[in-house]
């Protein structure tokens, strides 16, 4: 699977993207030098704690950044074929609107508030079809029924005339997916699509998304803080921290051979039955706020292994394996002894233990200061 | 159903309160109401006659029961001044006041909705600022002064409208309309300000909601987002405001009619108060107040019916 | 946006301040006596002798407008005081006692609100012979519901707050809780309501006086001046402008002041 990716056409190519928050005095980087690509039919997972810029990154792919933010540097290219690629970062609003919903579609986090309560489900689903594909009302309605079946919604004919509040959260999210895939987009961005839902519903929604990917060959960018969900769905994973990508690789790379201390910390904080009775690992501290970010590695203040150089200079994303990159001085140094996977895995386990202790210490001081 | 039951109880209580207030208002006058009406030079026979006519010679509760029973049948007694049934006098004035209030309502909604949308669309820009200054003035200018200015400008200077000559609808609808246009505009201005401010705030609130982002992600233009998605949500609460406004318009017309000497409820009420024509005052106040209360009730119900979120629950 | 907000506060204070200055000056000095008539000087256009012209009795409009400010302030402040006092009692009782007392008082308030303002004022005014005192009473009654509502919701909001529970815990009495603990928290919304009620009072007084049912001669009132001016619109249009402009400015001033105070409070609350 990993081998195939390289030959496939890139559908989305983000190069060195920088998104800034416009301030009165200074401009702060929300997303800082991110490069990512998604190939046709591939599912890319973006993982990170809240506040790391993953939602902003996803909004930028649709040109939907909040008014207070803007792209300042870098490129976003989208195209199903190389000669058709369009620079999303340069397009005018009118041109962007032709791509939104038609080529790139999005599923948002909260299905309870993401639908318009005073318009029928039918209207909201057919709207895109009529706009982008020029369907008539009847054609669009017929297509909507088809879409409802596809996302597993019962009694699709009746649904057309119903309002969002008549549906459960899971059904609404299916409707959101139906809206997103209505025009058969090449890329589907799902920003925490299951976070607001019950666990059993989460699995159903994931199944729907998996089917769409397999049947239509839609590329997916799945954004989540939940590593378990990412592992289940994705081909590749990008770990984001404080506006930067700190590690990227295949699912196997990230889960079996994590290199960045942050990735390791994330993995250790997943609860699992084998750790029953043990205290859960957590990374001490929190994602630094925008104005707290430094010239060096943003993870350094929370990192067990931070060195002098980490605070002065930002480590570059460097290859540590086939299709596996990370940005950490420590790993790059170690990377000289490349291929020594067992060694790094041992180290990973070791760091987990150490991190665990520091987290307890941090909690202690936190409680005292409160 | 629970809501409707509670709303009905409130309606009933409000009407009861209005009835009691209207009744007692004229029974708490110190001394003898007949004496107050006729003046101190009246003879004893005159007073006794008027007391019998007003029913004030009987015990208070009996009076109230009698009055209430008649009022329920829309019988408010006979006007002291015009010696005609109160209801007949009131009915003869309905076309003027009702057409004035309705025209003002139409003017205010038709002007306020586009202005409110424009203000919300140009949030923080030139038009928004201009409109918000305009609404502040609209709320502050007394409608009767606005009426006087309109007379001054359009009646006396430009001579577009003839002032102070009301033509009944039955005679010439066009002239009748012409004679109520200026008062309707004066009446509508404060209501325009209220609706514009309300609509603007609601639309701006709506524009920050998640569903707008979803609509944008579909590739819809800002235009169709604002006119279809946002407006549909923002207009619903405006309906309640418009309902309340209709009551304000009815009440406001009491004053405006005096400015333009229109023979509606206003002039009738002012004349009745001036003449101490208590049956007429009572009948008019009760009828106007109950009308306003019932309109608000209907608007409240229709709002609930129009909002799919509540309707289908 | 922030500039805009303090803008209403500044402008509102400016207008209200200007009005206050006019009123205070009128207590000590007016160009002419406000009731001095002069047949030879009837309906004069504004000029060097009479800055705003004269009315149909030859009285100086400027002097009458200045004294009219006294009427507006008198009616406004006393009726607001009445509304505030009654509204405070009703609102506190409803919010603090709760239960059926709350239900009863609030239904009565709703009923009072359902009455269109000017109609209620006309009803109250028609009971007695029109004069300034009953105008004040009528307008005061009109403003009770809005005060009662604001104070009730403030009391309800703070009644169960931790610091109020704490105060009760250390034995604070009802008086202490209401006036020392709760009142300071809702004072800004009360001031906002007072400012808005003040502008309503000026509007209603002007309307009643315009109809001849409010302030009676010889007390000068802006509303009644407009009534008189309307009869001479052809000959002396300027007479109808000055009183209306002053009503507008004072209502505008108090409205802006009320909005400004509310925005200020919202900002403070949001800031922490």
UniProtKB/TrEMBL annotation, chain A:
Region annotation (Disordered) maps to 341-370
GO biological process entries:
peptide transport
Basic and acidic residues compositional bias, start-end: 341-350
Q: Which GO terms describe its cellular component?
A: plasma membrane
Task: Cite the ABC transporter domain residue spans from the record.
Answer: 14-267
Q: Where in the cell is it found?
A: Cell membrane
Main localization of the protein described in the UniProt heading: membrane
Q: Is tRNA processing included in the keywords of this UniProt record?
A: no
Keyword vocabulary terms for this entry? ATP-binding, Cell inner membrane, Cell membrane, Membrane, Nucleotide-binding, Translocase, Transport
Kindly give the membrane topology term recorded for this protein.
Peripheral membrane protein
Domain of life of the native organism: Bacteria
PROSITE patterns noted in UniProt: ABC_TRANSPORTER_1, ABC_TRANSPORTER_2
Kindly list the GO molecular function terms attached to this UniProt entry.
ATP binding; ATP hydrolysis activity
Under the heading Pfam families, the entry gives: ABC_tran (PF00005), oligo_HPY (PF08352)
Q: Which NCBIfam families match?
A: oligo_HPY (TIGR01727)
Q: Which family does the record assign?
A: Belongs to the ABC transporter superfamily.
- This protein is called what? ABC transporter ATP-binding protein
- Its source organism is Paenibacillus agri
UniProtKB/TrEMBL annotation, chain B:
GO cellular component assignments: plasma membrane
Keyword Protease (UniProt): no
Report the superkingdom from the record: Bacteria
Q: Which GO molecular function terms does the record list?
A: dipeptide transmembrane transporter activity
Question: Which membrane topology term applies here?
Answer: Multi-pass membrane protein
What residue stretches are annotated with the ABC transmembrane type-1 domain?
94-299
Q: Which CDD domains match?
A: TM_PBP2
Name its cellular compartments. Answer: Cell membrane
Q: Show the PROSITE patterns listed in the entry.
A: ABC_TM1
Extract the InterPro entries matched here: BPD_transp_1_N, MetI-like, MetI-like_sf
Signal peptide start-end: none
Taking the first listed entry, what is the main subcellular location of this protein, grouped into a coarse class?
membrane
Keywords of the record, alphabetical order, are:
Cell membrane, Membrane, Transmembrane, Transmembrane helix, Transport
Per its UniProt record, what Pfam families does this chain match? Answer: BPD_transp_1, BPD_transp_1_N
Q: So where does this one cross the membrane?
A: 96-118, 139-160, 180-199, 234-260, 280-303
Q: What PANTHER family does the record tag this protein with?
A: DIPEPTIDE TRANSPORT SYSTEM PERMEASE PROTEIN DPPB-RELATED
Protein family according to the UniProt entry: Belongs to the binding-protein-dependent transport system permease family.
- This protein is called what? ABC transporter permease
From TrEMBL, chain C:
Spell out the coiled coil positions from the record: none
Question: Does this UniProt record's set of keywords contain Amino-acid biosynthesis?
Answer: no
Q: Kindly state a single biological-process term from the GO annotations of this entry.
A: transmembrane transport
Task: Print the keywords alphabetically.
Answer: Cell membrane, Membrane, Transmembrane, Transmembrane helix, Transport
What parts of the sequence cross the membrane?
7-29, 72-96, 108-127, 133-151, 236-257
Name the InterPro entries on file: BP-dependent_transpt_permease (IPR050366), MetI-like (IPR000515), MetI-like_sf (IPR035906)
Keyword DNA damage listed? The answer is: no
Q: How does it sit in the membrane?
A: Multi-pass membrane protein
UniProt main location, coarse: membrane
Q: Name one GO cellular component term.
A: plasma membrane
- What is the superkingdom listed in this entry's lineage? Bacteria
CDD domains found in the cross-reference section: TM_PBP2
Write out the annotated subcellular location: Cell membrane
Q: Where is the ABC transmembrane type-1 domain?
A: 69-258
Q: Which PANTHER family match?
A: OLIGOPEPTIDE TRANSPORT SYSTEM PERMEASE PROTEIN APPC, PEPTIDE ABC TRANSPORTER PERMEASE PROTEIN
Q: Which family does it belong to?
A: Belongs to the binding-protein-dependent transport system permease family.
UniProt-recorded name of the protein: ABC transporter permease
Protein species of origin = Paenibacillus agri
């Amino acid at each position: 699977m990993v081998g195939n990716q390289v030959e496939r056409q890139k559908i989305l190519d983000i190069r060195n993207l920088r998104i800034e928050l416009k301030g009165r005095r200074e401009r702060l980087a929300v997303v800082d030098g991110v490069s990512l690509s998604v190939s046709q039919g591939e599912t890319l997972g973006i993982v990170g704690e809240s506040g790391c810029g993953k939602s902003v990154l996803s909004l930028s792919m649709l040109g939907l950044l909040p008014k207070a933010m803007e792209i300042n540097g870098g490129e976003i290219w989208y195209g199903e074929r190389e000669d058709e690629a369009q620079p999303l970062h340069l397009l005018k609003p009118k041109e962007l609107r032709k791509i939104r919903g038609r080529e790139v579609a999005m599923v948002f986090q909260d299905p309870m508030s993401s639908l318009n309560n005073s318009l029928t489900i039918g209207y909201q689903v057919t709207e895109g079809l009529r706009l982008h594909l020029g369907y008539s009302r009847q054609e669009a309605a017929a297509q909507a029924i088809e879409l409802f079946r596809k996302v597993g919604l019962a009694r699709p004919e009746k649904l057309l005339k119903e309002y969002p509040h008549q549906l459960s959260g899971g059904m609404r999210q299916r409707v959101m997916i139906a809206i997103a895939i209505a025009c058969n987009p090449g890329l589907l961005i799902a920003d925490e699509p299951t976070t607001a839902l019950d666990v059993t519903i989460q699995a159903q929604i994931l199944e729907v998304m998996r089917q769409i990917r397999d049947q239509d060959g839609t590329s997916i960018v799945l954004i989540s803080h939940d590593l378990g969900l990412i592992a289940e769905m994705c081909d590749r994973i990008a770990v984001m921290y404080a506006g930067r990508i700190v590690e990227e690789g295949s699912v196997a790379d990230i889960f079996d051979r994590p290199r960045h201390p942050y990735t390791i910390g994330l993995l250790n904080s997943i609860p699992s039955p084998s750790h029953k009775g043990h205290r859960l690992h957590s990374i001490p501290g929190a994602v630094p706020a925008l104005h707290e970010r430094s010239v060096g590695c943003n993870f350094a203040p929370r990192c067990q292994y931070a060195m002098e150089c980490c605070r002065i200079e930002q480590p570059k994303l460097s290859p540590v394996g086939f299709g596996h990159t990370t940005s950490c001085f420590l790993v790059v140094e170690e990377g000289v002894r490349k291929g020594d996977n067992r060694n790094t895995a041992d180290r990973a386990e070791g760091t987990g233990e150490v991190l665990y202790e520091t987290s307890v210490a941090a909690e202690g001081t936190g409680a005292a200061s409160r | 159903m629970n809501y409707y039951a509670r709303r009905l109880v409130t309606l009933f209580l409000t009407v009861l309160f209005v009835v009691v207030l209207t009744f007692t208002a004229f029974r708490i006058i110190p001394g003898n109401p007949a004496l107050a009406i006729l003046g101190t030079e009246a003879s004893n026979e005159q007073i006794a006659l008027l007391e019998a006519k007003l029913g004030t010679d009987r015990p208070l509760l009996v009076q109230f029961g009698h009055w209430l029973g008649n009022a329920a049948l829309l019988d408010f007694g006979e006007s002291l001044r015009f010696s005609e049934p109160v209801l007949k006098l009131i009915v003869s004035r309905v076309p003027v006041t009702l057409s004035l209030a309705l025209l003002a309502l139409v003017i205010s909604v038709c002007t306020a909705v586009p202005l409110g949308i424009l203000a919300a669309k140009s949030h923080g820009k030139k038009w928004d600022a201009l409109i918000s200054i305009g609404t502040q003035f609209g709320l502050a200018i007394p409608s009767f002064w606005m009426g006087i200015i309109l007379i001054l400008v359009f009646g006396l200077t430009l001579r577009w409208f003839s002032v102070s000559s009301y033509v009944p609808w039955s005679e010439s609808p066009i002239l009748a309309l012409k004679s109520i246009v200026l008062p309707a505009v004066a009446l509508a201005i404060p209501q325009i300000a209220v609706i514009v401010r309300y609509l603007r705030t609601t639309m701006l609130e709506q524009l920050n909601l998640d569903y707008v982002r979803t609509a944008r992600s579909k590739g819809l233009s800002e235009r169709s987002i604002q006119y279809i998605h946002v407006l549909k949500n923002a207009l619903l609460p405006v309906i309640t405001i418009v309902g309340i406004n209709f009551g304000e318009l009815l009440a406001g017309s009491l004053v405006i009619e005096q400015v333009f000497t229109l023979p509606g409820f206003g002039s009738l009420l002012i004349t009745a108060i001036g003449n101490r024509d208590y049956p007429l005052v009572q009948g008019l106040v009760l009828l106007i107040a109950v009308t306003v209360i019932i309109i608000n009730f209907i608007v409240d119900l229709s709002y609930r019916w129009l909002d799919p979120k509540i309707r289908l629950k | 946006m922030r500039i805009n907000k303090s803008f209403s506060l500044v402008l509102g204070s400016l207008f209200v301040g200007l009005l206050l200055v006019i009123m205070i000056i009128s207590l000590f000095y007016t160009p002419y006596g406000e009731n001095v008539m002069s047949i030879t000087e009837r309906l004069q256009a504004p000029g060097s002798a009479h800055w705003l012209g004269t009315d149909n009795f030859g009285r100086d409009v400027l002097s009458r407008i200045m004294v009219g400010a006294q009427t507006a302030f008198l009616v406004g402040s006393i009726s607001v005081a009445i509304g505030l006092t009654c509204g405070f009692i009703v609102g506190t009782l409803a919010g603090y006692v709760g239960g059926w007392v709350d239900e009863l008082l609030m239904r009565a308030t709703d009923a009072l609100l359902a009455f269109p303002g000017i109609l209620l004022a006309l009803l109250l005014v028609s009971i007695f012979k029109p004069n300034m005192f009953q105008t004040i009473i009528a307008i005061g009654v009109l403003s009770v519901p809005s005060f009662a509502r604001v104070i009730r919701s403030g009391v309800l909001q703070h009644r169960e707050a931790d610091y109020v529970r704490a105060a009760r815990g250390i034995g604070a009495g009802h008086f202490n809780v209401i006036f020392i603990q709760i009142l300071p928290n809702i004072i800004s919304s009360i001031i906002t309501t007072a400012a808005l009620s003040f502008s309503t009072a000026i509007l209603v007084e002007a309307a009643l006086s315009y109809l001849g049912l409010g302030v009676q001669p010889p007390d000068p009132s802006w509303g009644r001046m407009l009534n008189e001016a309307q009869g001479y619109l052809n000959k002396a249009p300027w007479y109808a402008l000055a009183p209306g402009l002053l009503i507008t400015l004072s209502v505008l001033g108090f409205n802006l002041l009320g909005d400004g105070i509310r925005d200020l409070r919202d900002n403070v609350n949001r800031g922490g």
